[in-house]
């Protein structure tokens, strides 16, 4: 969403590109301090990484296929990136209303 490469993220964290890939795949655990650094670089609160985190013994909810299909396209990613960069909630709501009207 930030259009940041793994190489740029690695440089920001002071680790190798390969280490970032290991974090992403879950091959290596990420400590609390590193998680805090990651949140700052990605401009999100640490809690972002735990949103919708399943409770112990609970299966994680899968994304609906229409969302994953949408985000699998270049236009979907571009639209999502642009949409989240709009800070005015009224403007975002207006866009949703417009798109819903166009879809009918």
How many distinct beta strands? 0
**Strand pairing plus helix content: what structural class?**
mainly alpha
Total number of domains: 2
Please give the radius of gyration in angstroms: 17 Å
Helix content: 55-70%
Largest sheet: none
Residue stretches low in confidence (pLDDT < 50, at least 5 long) are: none
Instruction: Note the beta-strand portion.
Output: under 5%
What average pLDDT do the residues reach? 88
Chart the SSEs and their pairings:
Elements: H1 6-13, H2 17-25, H3 32-42, H4 65-71, H5 74-84, H6 89-103
Helix pairs in contact: 1-2
Q: Could you give a short description of this structure?
A:
The protein contains six helices and no strands.
Describe what this molecule looks like in 3D:
By secondary structure, the chain is mainly α. The chain folds into two domains: 6-50, no CATH class; 65-103, no CATH class. The protein is 59% helix and 0% strand. It contains six helices and no strands. 2% of the residues are buried.
């Amino acid at each position: 969403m930030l259009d940041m490469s793994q190489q740029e993220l690695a440089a920001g964290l002071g680790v190798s590109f390969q280490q970032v890939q290991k974090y992403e795949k879950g091959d290596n655990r990420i400590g609390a301090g590193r998680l805090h650094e990651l949140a700052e670089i990605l401009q999100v609160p640490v809690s972002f990484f735990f949103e919708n985190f399943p409770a112990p013994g609970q299966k994680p909810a899968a994304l609906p296929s229409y969302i994953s299909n949408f985000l699998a396209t270049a236009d979907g990613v571009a639209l999502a990136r642009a949409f989240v960069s709009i800070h005015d909630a009224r403007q975002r709501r207006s866009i949703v209303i417009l798109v819903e009207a166009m879809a009918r």
